[in-house]
């Protein structure tokens, strides 16, 4: 019981700590990821290869303890790592 509780607390601490350790480049990639861009498009925007973009995405998933790109963006929004896109009122 106590061990399970400690494990949950450690997991929560790791999830919160992971957000703080994103590199500047990973933050750039995360911003584009939040816009729904593919690795290829991220690469074009940041002048890196799609493979390098993929590596950054994998690192982001690991650091945010996310199983998918969508989950990573959701976690990032919850933690305030990416701002919601402004909505236009046309």
UniProtKB/TrEMBL annotation:
PROSITE patterns assigned: HTH_LUXR_2
Single GO molecular function: DNA binding
Family matches, as SUPFAM superfamilies: C-terminal effector domain of the bipartite response regulators (SSF46894)
Biological process, per Gene Ontology: regulation of DNA-templated transcription
InterPro entries attached to this UniProt entry: Sig_transdc_resp-reg_C-effctor (IPR016032), Tscrpt_reg_LuxR_C (IPR000792), WH-like_DNA-bd_sf (IPR036388)
CDD domains linked: LuxR_C_like
Protein name: Response regulator transcription factor
Positions of the HTH luxR-type domain: 15-80
Pfam family, one: GerE
Keyword list, A-Z: DNA-binding, Transcription, Transcription regulation
């Amino acid at each position: 019981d106590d061990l399970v509780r400690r494990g949950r607390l450690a997991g929560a601490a790791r999830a919160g700590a992971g957000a703080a350790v994103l590199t500047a480049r990973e933050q750039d990639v995360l911003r584009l990821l939040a816009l729904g861009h593919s690795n290829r498009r991220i690469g074009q925007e940041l002048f890196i290869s799609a493979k390098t973009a993929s590596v950054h995405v994998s690192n982001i998933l690991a650091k945010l303890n996310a199983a998918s790109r969508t989950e990573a963006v959701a976690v990032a929004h919850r933690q305030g790592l990416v701002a919601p896109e402004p909505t236009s009122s046309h």
